[in-house]
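User: Structure please.
Assistant: Input sequence and predicted structure:
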Amino acid sequence: MDRVIQQKKWPLKKILTYFGIPVVVVAFLGALLANSGGSRLKVRKERLSIATVSQGMFQEFIPINGAVRARNSVFVTAVEGGQVKEIYLKGGETVKEGDMILRLTNPGLELNYMNLQTQLLEQADQLRNTKITMETSGLVLKDQLAQMVFQLRDLEQQYRRNKPLYEDSVISEMEFQTLENSYLQAKRRRDLLIERIETDSILRVNQLVQVDKSLDLVARNLDAIQRSLANLTVRAPISGQLGTVEAELGQTITQGQRIAQVDDIDGYTVRANIDEHYISRIQPGLKGWFPFAGSQHGLQIFKVYPEVRNGSFEVDMDFQETEPDGIKRGQNLQIRLALSDETEAILIPRGGFYQATGGNYIYVLNEDGSRAYKRDIRITRQSDRQYEVQEGLRPGEQVIISNYESFNNADELILED
């Protein structure tokens, strides 16, 4: 008789061995396939900024800000302190050298001038009187010498007439000796007077020189005081355009205080600030352009100030041609500064994507524009309007250039209308 063969039940361990492994394998393969497809994200196409990759001429620009300055400016400062009495001119007016800007009053200085002037004038009178006395003394001595010479000549004649008479015993010895003594004494007095005149003459010349110097010093002191008073009237140091007058009626101005500025209106320059990141690339000769009154105007750097302050440094720029009509000192200009010459390159417009990617990748649309795929690129240079792409893109391709913050670093974007 036939025997029924009972089928043995598989134990749980055996079931897991035969069926568990394939399930794990299938799950692993599924995950692998999912990863190979990359993460996807649906986005509204209308919210994106899409641009076409182009090929054209590229020139690296950076935007900088500059302010118009006078080529030559002179500060107006108070030479003497005082209180503002009158203001003759206002800021913005055209002035000529020497024009009165304002007048100060200083009672202390004016009183001191009057007192010192009186003292100096008295001193000058005394010096002049001394000079007159010295000159008169010289004349008196010369007059005395003339009289003495006359007397000596008379005594000499008597001496010569009487000497033969004495020798012939016509006159007595006593009478002749008296005459001879008078003659010799007069001759000695003459010689002493001549010596005195010569000595006095030398002394008088030296004293007169000192008197003249003292008089000259008095005159210079008077001039200095007069100039101090004249300096209470503040005048334009050069011809040009007067800046803001920083003074009010009744205000006390201290010595050396800046009151205004006069700009030479025959020429202007531009002082611009540049980020310190570019300091190694900035040099005299670089050119820039700015819009004004509906047209573009050129500038060129002629001086670089390498000192960095608050993250930036300064340059001075000249207008390449004449200054535009109507441009004023202090006017701010938005300048595009060229850092390179024009070269042919693959270009994309600037956009918000750069902040999220650092220029390392970009989303490129497929042919029908329904999807965009993440692609590595290399951006080398940039201007205020474009990026130069060295690797990763071809002319004619379309790319997303708007901000990527909401894309979560997805590998593929599904673009929905």
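The first helix runs from residue 12 to 37.
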